[in-house]
Amino acid sequence: MSGGPTVPGLLRQRAADTPDAVALCRPDGSALTFGQWDRSADALAAALVADGLRVGQRVALLFDEREWFGFATAFLGVLRAGGVAVPLSARLPPGQLVDRVTAAGAVGTIREGCAVPPELGGWQRGPAGADAAAVPDRATPDGPAQIIFTSGTEGSARPVVATHGNLTHGHDAAPGRRQLAHSRYFLHAFPLGTNAAQTMLLTGLAAEPAALVVPRFDAAEVCAAVEEFRVGTLFLVPAMARELLDSGELHRRDLSSVVLVGTTGDVLPGSVARALADVLPYATIVNTYSSTEAAPARTTMVFDSRRPDAVGRGAVRITDDAGREVPAGETGQVWIGSDAPPRRYLDGGDTGTFRAGWTRTGDRGRLDDEGYLHLAGRDASTIHSGGTKVSPLTVEQALREHPDVRDCAVTALADPVLGERPAAVLVTRTGAVPADLRTFLAGRLSGAEIPQRVVCVAALPRNDGGKVVVRALRDLFPPAGSMPTADPVTVVERRLAGIWAAVLGVAAVGRDDDFLALGGNSMSALRLARLVADQFAVPTPVSALYARPGLAEQAAWIADRIAGSP
Asked: Could you report the per-residue pLDDT of 268-283, keeping only the tens digit for each?
């Protein structure tokens, strides 16, 4: 798995073949040709070599998101000089920037358009260099080219090393073999410092169309650019796709030029793919599944309404926790394979992730009888509720079927009896939790899968790549009993509050309190149902209480039964 081109070698080839062709452009009409890109990379590489940069040394890249041309120059200049580029997001807090530069072992930083924390060590410079003759490529196919950090949505972000051979695998810049030849432009708005943005930069080197870069995602700006430039290929993360659909901009602009919509970075919900297909009838909707560690290994899936939640098939294995393959239909660890040179963690902690051309993605999933992969969520996010393993992804798919739910995420909250319970964070069209949510879910999920606590927010916490920051979800749920709540109002509410207090062992109960949030479980719910039946003389199934865990809604249900009794 050695040999092949280097990243600067791809640029040299494009500059030789089509020097005046546009490589990168912006909606304001500014552009960078392949010839200009190649010459500016030469100038920077010559300056870095003259300043003493040694082969294999690491250089951090910190650019304002509007400075894609400078970033592209810096990335190729560092690589041509034999260095290793460390792309970083300027949106990171100063402390995290310093930590990542330190973790990567960068000797210096190339920056443009953004401030650098004073604690940042090493040298600093801009991307420009004096004109220079063509610089010999000091990179090698087997040498390291890039260090990119994982998303860190569940814990600390980890630096991942990719070689030139890894980054150029599958890219062919030769005429007649270039990707996306059906388009004049492909558009994306992925933030610098993300794996998705790096994939787009590499795609731009070997694709036929020019890369049209929108510095920061905005639904109106993206749709206006698609219309003006007659964009043929549109790349999104699923969160961007949802925002486009909710904005209404897809209906206000002529987007008939779009023939391909590619999504990456997360699972594309079937409901979102279906809505995109309805609004963009001439476009093929394709979702790519991979990970920062696994790339360029991936699966791709053209949206198929018969299997809307599948993410493709190909070089995929499902194993148990001991690494043994499991049969179709059984859920386990997801591995995807490629014959590309593999990536690795910079700190060397590769045990359990990389194995003989296969990479464990950290997701759980299953293969159906036709070999299609269906994901069940992150392995670290699996909710262990009593003896049941609950997949957050399965719960999220059911939540998204509710007509009032625009977006959602599911996490685990600690439970003194069951260990963990699912909890849901919703973005709804009304700004409130739908009154019929639990009843709606009861026909789609098992009892263990139905979220026991639900909160509504204006937007989910997401990182630069559009992924939900799982560790931030739990902070959206205040500790039980910590929020003030109104006193019970009706006679039934006051009597029921007394029963709750006795069953749960709490001093006071408000009308907005949630039985489950206050520590209720299956055993206490059974006791509650018996007491309600005895004291109010109405048949009370436990399922009725689980479906409406709030005091006020339980009291209303009881009052209705009393009014309807003979």
From this structure: 888 899 999 999 999 9
Helix (H) or strand (E) run with residue 10 in it: helix 7-17
Instruction: Verify that 436 and 543 share a domain, yes or no.
Output: no
Q: What is the DSSP annotation of 329-367?
A: T--EEEEEE-SSPPPEETT---TTTEETTEEEEEEEEEE
Cβ atoms of residues 234 and 187 within 8 Å: yes
Structural tokens at position 548: 């409406």
- Pick from 293, 4, 344, 299: nearest CA to 170: 4
Considering the domain architecture, whether residues 51 and 174 belong to the same structural domain is answered as yes
Kindly calculate the radius of gyration of the chain based on its CA atoms and give it in whole angstroms.
27
3 state DSSP class of 42: helix
Cβ–Cβ under 8 Å, residues 186 and 235: yes
Q: Are 473 and 451 in contact (CB under 8 A)?
A: no
Chain-centre distance for alpha carbon 53 = 35
* Domain coverage including residue 453: 382-476
pTM of the model: 0.82
Summarised one tens digit per residue, pLDDT across range 136-154 is 899 999 999 999 999 876 6
The pLDDT-based confidence of 350 (bands split at 50, 70, 90) is low
Same domain? For 115 and 171 the reply is yes
Buried/exposed 91-130: b ≥16 CB within 10 Å, e otherwise: bbeeebbbebbebbebbbbbbbebebeeebeeeebebebe
**Dihedral of the alpha carbons of 63, 67, 69, 72, in degrees to the nearest 10:** 20
